[in-house]
Description:
Layout: E1 16-17, E2 22-23, E3 25-30, H1 44-63, E4 73-82, E5 91-101, E6 105-114, E7 120-132, E8 137-138, H2 143-152
Amino acid sequence: MTELPGLPERDPKQEWFHPSKRYAYHLAVEATLRDTDAFGHVNNGVYASWIEEIRTKYVFERQALTAVEQLGFILASAKLDFRSPVLIHETVDLFCAPSRVGESSWDLVYEGRARKDGRLVVEAQTTQVQYDYTVKAAVPIPDAWRKLLEADMVAT
């Protein structure tokens, strides 16, 4: 990959592989007591927070951002499929990668697996719209960001 001005080049050793696909980013999370519901497993709303966390960290690291005001997108849609319950103190390895890059929007796909046994616990997809908060409108994806998304893209 050629280096883009002001944006870090991703270390090829930081590609994450699973039987289903290659991912561009990984984040481990641990289920806490506050994450669980009356049934003793992680509440479905927590998964959305985990997906938000990995999405934000992916964008921050790939674009070398340092402040939330630098984020240039809004979340347009999110779809989560719950595959297996997660219990307190289980570590979940989350993975994400771009799967589509349009003119002003891009999709990320996600997979979450329980570390202790590798079982699939969640799959998700989100659509982000590149957004200018000053003019309050969607804008084209900047070329440098587009190149990074395309380099990280995975087939779905």
